[in-house]
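TA notes. Do not distribute before section.
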Amino acid sequence: MERVSGIRCCAALRSCFPILTWLPGYNLTWLKMDLIAGLTVGLTAVPQALAYAEVAGLPVQYGLYSAFMGGFIYCIFGTSKDITLGPTAIMSLLCSAYIGGDPVFAVVLTLLCGIIQAGMALLRLGFLLDFISHPVIKGFTCAAAVTIGFGQVKNILGLKEIPQQFFLQVYYTFHKIPEARVGDVILGLCCLFFLVMLMLMKNSLGSSEHEAPLLVRSARRLVWSLATMRNALVVIAATGVAYSAEVTGHHFFSLTGKTAEGLPPFKAPPLSETVANGTVITFSDIAKVSDSSMLFGHILHSFLHAGSKNNYRIDANQELFAIGLTNILGSFVSAYPVTGSFGRTAVNSQTGVCSPAGGIVTGVIVLLSLAFLMPLFFYIPKASLAAVIICAVSPMIDFRVPVQLWRVKRLDLLPFLVTFVVSFWEVQYGIVGGVVVSGFMLLHIVARPKVKVSDHGVLLLELDSGLNFPVTEHLSRLVYKHDLQVSPRRCLVLDCAHVSSIDFTVIHELTELLKQFELRGVSMIFAGLKVLLSAELPGFRHTDRVDKALQLLTSINHYQQQF
């Protein structure tokens, strides 16, 4: 008995702290692969974090503040060896709609998101994310990618004072094209060109490199490494060009500008803020504004758990807890909300990471950048960061989705299009609109299940799903239309072979129908009804002969012989 209790205790500990499942078997080979993967992801994470802070409307250092905590927390509480946590393009876009460039709002939002995410995980509410359909996710992702990508065109062109609202942004971007700075345009286009070329080179590498000569394999590995670190290489090169221009007195480019130096202080997140005119904004005031933003932070988390990855399953509730704890502790280092990054997770997997310990290496790279490289970030051109963002979000625009939806189920285009179109008005309303539309579609299926009506002297209604309260009116209407209101009166057979659930409202309605049949001197028979369901229907006529007929005979003439 004590042994069984000990085994259960160990299993519970491993469930709460997944690090205990892989740490005992850790070895030098894993360490080598984790170091390589962590370094590669770190060189990708640093320029992306700087760029995503621009999307969120925050100083660039806040992107780095948000990029290191996830590696340490996820190593202990995460269930996937590949997933990396940090700032993402979509999360940054959602934050920008709420924080308005105010770091205090960003930090409070991080704390609130973390508390709700951790609370959902502890209450095992991860299943709620299953109610967000794939068309909604795809519509939201595509619209967010277009919004984010076009939002960076102003930095490629060197334009200023462009509104954040998408339609106004489109109008004023084209309106101000004559004010574009030549230096920013040339540098931005060059950065885009090199990023696209390196990405194409990486994608063109064949998978059969083991069959190639040693020299060819080495060249492919070099190209793959350079292409994987393309963001860092392009930003470093652009920074070198901008620095050379600045020291010679030529101000050709729009630069990131002065940034805070050093590591962020570890302190409790601010729960209020005093603005310039002396007005105090309390925590409750901030929280009231953040409700919708927090909701969408949770929704974005479902992107991380859309399915299996690399032939193993991940625990959605445990992942939700890891992200929630990351956000809670991240608020103590001035981070804005984070989630799983698809791009960096793919890089992590492709470089052969063996355990979540690779995230520690990534976190150290970010901390070193904060400690020693912040003065150099002054010279990073905004056009180069814009190019990094555009190339990062472009794969999220999938033109195949509408075609696939059309081929599989055309009605699924409706939630996709609603989400896609409304997201350009307000990104948070887009996904709400899509969820509402897909919810109504789901309710319509429940309320109007397919019912096959056969009439050969005996009326047969074949139900293809459960009987729940929304279907009562529809079922009654069919019975009255095809039997009770016609002459001559016939027996009714309800084929319940596919009915797996039934509720009180349906029982009450069926009881009333049974009384109507008894008054008219005809029978209402339930066939194929499961034993558990028949126990819920006292007084209903249910015979083994009818069940046997429905299970073994396929012709309606056989039904007539039985009755």
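Switch to the second chain here.
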Amino acid sequence: MTVSSFFNRASRVLSSSNFLLLCTLSGGGVVAYSESQTGAERPSLQANEPSKKKVVVLGTGWAATSFLKDLDASLYDVQVVSPRNYFAFTPLLPSVTCGTVEARSIVEPVRNIIKKRKGEINFWEAECIKIDSSNKKVFCRSNIDNLVGSGEFSLDYDFLVVAVGAQVNTFNTPGVKENCHFLKDVEDAQRIRLSVIDCFEKAVLPSITDQEQRSILHFVVVGGGPTGVEFAAELHDYVLEDLIKLYPTVKDKVKITVIQSGDHILNMFDERISSFAEQKFTRDGIEVQTGCRVIGVDDKVITMKEKSTGEVCSVPHGLVVWSTGISTLPVIRDFMKEIGQAERHVLATNEWLRVKGCEEVYALGDCSSITQRKIMDDITAVFEAADKDKSGTLTIEEFQEVMDDIVLRYPQVEHYLKQKHLRDFSTLWKDLQGNESKEIGIEAFKLALCHADSQVKSLPATAQVAAQQGAYLARCFNHMDHAEEHPEGPRRFSGSGRHKFLPFRYRHLGQFAPLGGEQTAAELPGDWVSMGHSTQWLWYSVYASKQVSWRTRVLVVSDWTRRFIFGRDSSRV
């Protein structure tokens, strides 16, 4: 056989049959090659893998970031859409306004966060402009300038997590948007920092009169909540500890005013903290005007009206910071109209954070509010479910058994029992009948719980609430398949079976109010109130530990240390 005929025959053998070649490489690896018969389809390695459900997350704030950090992304096809490619530790924004902490110290890139998660998460820097729940689609648009091609795109979803936050509420007050600073995000804090320096630089110009100096250096804070109070305190420390050393000629002309429409500042705190804050501000020379409502702002004057007398007065200002609450974003308002919630102020969800009217849409954080179902709406169904023998009355055993599920399904009942100092359900039973052995009917059952719904309260729009909601929803997503077969929630009183998950329950871990001068007030669980210098160190430790990464934790602590040693930086950069 000639050499050419041998190779011709060999080539026909290779083309007509499967051929496997194993070659040992120098590194010890093995290469395998398999060629299928002519016309046969090569099997796909992913043919038998079930397709993952698509989860779209809108936002990168507290709720969304907490959700992404705890979510097992290997179970889903996860896509994140937000106009900001970072997470910001917003409780430290007032510190950024005065250079106590640098802006970059409190932000963490979203891509750094998601790359550490199990599974793959895609991030798109864009703004959601429309939610189409009927077709399970979101429409987005990039805010990046000078893009080549269209910056608009759409994403399909199986589950949508809406955590876009909210915007500042101006109450349609004339001139606010044009002439006031807000303190909602990092860019706001940076603008305030530059404006404060500008005010001092302008005030020391030779052409500025004494009266003009007093107007330029009048800093007005509208809103006596935690953000407004903390900014006023930070600004006072900045002026006292740093700026008057650099601008000594105007040290006696600086004035800080806090305007509050209510009767007290920090009125969501314990009254002891509110009183302490007002007294400290008075000692520090910060003017607190309560019972006043701002009715207009221009570039030089702020106009307000006293509620008690109706008197209107105008005060010159150099800078106004508006911090009076939040309102719904336009994209959420449009979505609410689409699903029949146009009359509400925020998205309504049930106790499992699912948007009412949309089975596969969840809402977290400032853009939503949980509508807690009232027990008196279900009281008849609850009684009938508890009355197992259909006798028309409940024994103490039946009463205690149903109360366990009631407390899980209706958390206001637990708050009611604590308020009444009732140790357990048997104590409530004794209060009803005076004797443990008796049975009760439906009227007595209603009487026992008729006041429980008075404990239903809306959750505050805070980072603490949003973070807990994100962690809760992530756990639900991680155990969704398991919960289908093994539900862990309370009993369904209207129907059979149990709910898949326990309803969300907020656990209040306390709140801080830094008041300047290395003093902080704290309201902690158990009706514990702490105020003073020792609480400031507790604030330092808690806020350092709550940072989203070790990088930001180190940066924030180093900024605090730098400020103690060198003071704050007043450069206009």
